[in-house]
Amino acid sequence: MRPSLRLALAAAASAASAANTAAAFTSQTASAPFVARSASSAASSSSSVVVASSSSSSPSALAMSDSSATDGSAEQPAAAAAVSTREEITSRMSIPLTFDEMVRQAAGAMEDAYEGGKARQTIRVLLPRDPTNDQIGQYLENDADVDTANLVLAPPDETWQGGIMQLYRAAAPTCQEILRRFSRDTAGVPPKMIEDRSVDESGVDGVGLWLTQSSLPLNDVSCFVQPTQETVDAVETIHAQAGPRLVALMNPQWRNADDALDAASKSGGVLGGFASFLGGKGRSLERLDRMGFVNVYTLEGYVCKGGNVRMVKRFDSDWAVFAENDAGTGYVPVGTSEGRPTYQDVEAMLDDKGIALKYARDIGLAPKI
């Protein structure tokens, strides 16, 4: 037999053997569509395609394909669970009606955030106020006693007659109660409280630093009360010294919402620097962001359509908006928002709920809440 004919017959036999092997492999792996398609295409194609299909159906390739499919299917339920959890937390949000209830909410949010690795926290709360503060003709407002139920929770706004120092006299005991509730001492002994007013260089800016001394130094907490932008230098110093210990800011004196100067100070460049020099908070917030400060608990309020509105948010929830009922005994939910709702957003929520102006409700022109 000629050598050329012998080589041709050998090549034909080799091709037939490869086709039979591919067909057998196809029948064994019919449950894997990707492999079956590769094997069937190999049986009807050249030997080079058979090699390609065998490499693509290798155990490592199959493992990568299976793992990627598994990871993708696992991520989707996890993401859905995270969304539902956030929605669930938001649905459970409520407006505290008493001082103790507000302290529990704030301390609980701080503890949850700290356990989640957030050791630099910012909280905003309402302050205890004497219930006679709104009496006409009264020119001297008494400080509220947090040890009694004879108080109201009021936003720290410009209606306080004593200004920022009166706000500090209400904020300081509030901070103490929150830190006591947050205390991580297992012995049940409340931590020692130390007030440092040296951070208030002028003495009249209403700024203070409260420190707790626990049985374990690791559980010590530093909390700046009503810090200003000028206090950020002191915050950086405490931040560097505290390590994993909690450092908190309570009721910073800059607003949550941005005015034109604040927006310009966040733009950077010469304009941003000039806006920061004039009082814009952009640069101060950048420094706090670098230190890792996050908003953990926020409870705010103002008047909209003549009635009291309250907004509350945790670090792991959306904003929940409530309107005070006409009896003044509680709050009804009116809406939620992922971002901080503007005044116009809140007004639209009230309209959607059919809540009219308060004077119209008072004189019977609209239904009461």
TrEMBL record:
> Domain DUF1995 spans what residues?
96-347
Record's PANTHER family? DOMAIN PROTEIN, PUTATIVE (DUF1995)-RELATED, DUF1995 DOMAIN-CONTAINING PROTEIN
Q: Where is the signal peptide?
A: 1-18
**The keyword Signal appears for this protein:** yes
Matching Pfam families, A to Z? DUF1995
Q: Where is the composition biased (Low complexity)?
A: 55-69
The keyword Signal belongs to this UniProt entry's keyword annotation:
yes
Q: What UniProt keywords are attached to this protein's entry?
A: Signal
From which source organism is this entry? Trieres chinensis
Protein name, entry field: DUF1995 domain-containing protein
Q: Where does the record place the region Disordered?
A: 55-85
